Amino acid sequence: MTPPAARRPVVGIIGNMSLLNESYPVHAGGTMNSEAVAEVSGCLPIIIPSDPRLVVVEELLDLCDGFLLTGGRPNVHPSEYGEDETPAHGSFDRCRDAITLPLVRACVERGQPVFGICRGFQEVNVAMGGTLYPEIRDLPGRMNHRMPPDGTLEEKFALRHPVKFNPGGVFHQLLGAQEVMTNTLHGQGINRPGSRIVIDGTAPDGTPEAIYVQGAPGFTLSVQWHPEWNAAGDPVSRPLFAAFGRAVADWAAGRRPVALRSA
């Protein structure tokens, strides 16, 4: 008799509210996020409906071993970091805010792995008390980090600028390089870093691109770019998702992590 396969660790992928055929509301997540979690992290991906009417953070912490905070078109509402809403802030998803921000804080406290991507990167900063610029490209000396409006997916997710990491920092150690090339598909970015947020990598124009939470007992790496694109084949994306997968597997097995430190 063949023994049953071991249960894969579970990663909750934060879903985004969207409209199917412009009328039917759905909670959705990009296929490439699920592929990266399953194929590179070695975990079981499940989409979380990010709506406090439907799920409770405490339940999610018990259900999942780790969380992937994905990108999304709506932005974190500026009231979450003490600012007024303006047209430059774009659209919002207050239901997602209500789930992800307390979820990040709980994961940081517990040491439960959380990996932030693009909007997720910004959510980690806001959850820790930081603020955001509504539009990076409007700042003096900054480049346009937004997704190209036209072209194929390959063209939109193409590598567009370098990210330089702190010498001996967490990302430098993990990726084995102090500078890497990344894609860029975001409008907003970090203004003031939150409490304990370490900016470990920046774009050439000074825009923060890689962060983690100082002293957190678990995996808190977050990036402003989209490593889920070609995660299995990209030499930068693969180590990130592999490290996340190891952290999630450790949590699932009851092995509690040690806080990240720079060399």
Topology, please?
Elements: E1 10-14, E2 16-20, E3 24-28, H1 31-40, E4 44-48, H2 57-63, E5 66-69, H3 94-110, E6 114-117, H4 119-127, E7 132-133, H5 153-156, E8 161-165, H6 170-175, E9 179-182, E10 189-190, E11 197-202, E12 208-213, E13 222-223, H7 237-252
Parallel strand pairs: 1-4, 1-5, 5-6, 6-13
Antiparallel strand pairs: 2-3, 7-10, 8-9, 8-11, 11-12, 12-13
Structure description:
Helix content is 26%, strand content 21%. The strands form three sheets. The chain has a nine-stranded mixed beta sheet, sandwiched between helices. The longest helix has 17 residues. It is globular, with a radius of gyration of 17 Å. It starts with 9 loop residues before the first strand and ends in an 11-residue tail after the last helix. The chain has seven helices and 13 strands. The chain has one domain: Class I glutamine amidotransferase (GATase) domain (Rossmann fold, 3-Layer(aba) Sandwich). The chain is of the alpha/beta class and 263 residues long. The model has no long low-confidence stretch (mean pLDDT 91).
